[in-house]
Design goal:
The chain has 2 domains: about 80 residues, OB fold (Dihydrolipoamide Acetyltransferase, E2P); about 170 residues, de novo design (two linked rop proteins). Strands 1-2-3-5-4 form a 5-stranded mixed beta barrel. A hairpin with a 3-residue loop joins strand 2 and strand 3. The protein is an alpha+beta fold and about 250 residues long. It is built from 8 helices and 7 strands. It binds zinc ion.
């Protein structure tokens, strides 16, 4: 067996046996992998910290394709301390991890993995830097849609292709709607249209400011939630949890 160095993030951990942990990671090289951290629950284990959820680093592992790999050690790149401080940001980061995990499962092309991984890391970094986690996850959700095989039309009217008189957006109609094609859909704010298009194309790692009103944020989030519900078939536990804590906070 050969030792391999992989870059990745621990997205879940569970106890295994008396003292070990079985972790799942999203890695740049192999996508989703399961890794055994032997003895990681012992107080003095060097694997204790690095095998905890949301550790981002370079991991040395005995890699076994399609099976459970074994963790040897890791150099931490970022432990996302800001995210870990707050239940709400933990909730969003958990959602990001679960969502990306699901998309990787469905997306088989290795060139896709590279792009998806990049979106994943950039999103966690931005949440950790204190950017609005709702907006960051919404951007990520939009950008992942093509990998789920469902492209919303956010350049032109989804029904007729008109670009001049877009007035709203609808998950049922797959994207923007112009004045002519709108039937009874609620008309969203102009900025909702502008930001949706921008979010779809933005490079997450280059985001430097986000000034968006609550009304516009809610309209964007409503469309994206609705679009996921109607067209992706994904059901994510962390999303349900997030909805609960959003109500409380
Ligand atoms: Zn139209």
């Amino acid at each position: 067996m050969k030792i391999e160095k992989v870059e990745g993030v621990v997205i879940s951990e569970r106890n295994y046996g008396e003292t070990s942990k079985l972790i799942v990671m999203i890695t740049k090289e192999h996508g989703l992998i399961s890794v055994m951290a032997k003895g990681a629950r012992k107080m003095r284990s060097t694997l204790r910290g690095i095998s905890s959820k949301l550790t981002y680093g370079y991991f040395h592992i005995y890699y076994k394709e399609g099976k459970i790999s074994t963790l040897i050690d890791a150099d931490i790149i970022n432990s996302f301390k800001v995210i870990r401080r707050d239940l709400l940001t933990i909730g969003y980061a958990s959602f990001v991890c679960e969502l990306v995990g699901q998309v990787i499962k469905q997306s088989i092309m290795s060139k896709d993995l590279e792009v998806i991984y990049d979106y994943f890391i950039s999103s966690l970094i931005k949440i950790n830097e204190g950017f609005d986690p709702l907006v960051i996850t919404n951007i990520l959700e939009l950008k992942l849609l093509p990998f789920l095989g469902v492209n919303p039309m956010l350049d032109e009217c989804a029904v007729c292709g008109d670009v001049t008189s877009i007035v709203t957006v609808s998950a049922d109609k797959f994207g923007f709607l112009c004045q002519k094609c709108r039937t009874n859909e609620y008309i969203v704010n102009d900025k909702t249209i502008k930001f949706l298009r921008m979010f779809y194309y933005v490079d997450i790692s280059k985001i430097s400011k986000l000034e968006i009103s609550d009304k516009v944020k809610n309209e964007i989030n409503y469309f994206i939630d609705d679009f996921y519900d109607k067209h992706t078939g994904l059901y994510l536990k962390s999303k349900q949890f997030l909805k609960k804590i959003e109500v409380i906070s």
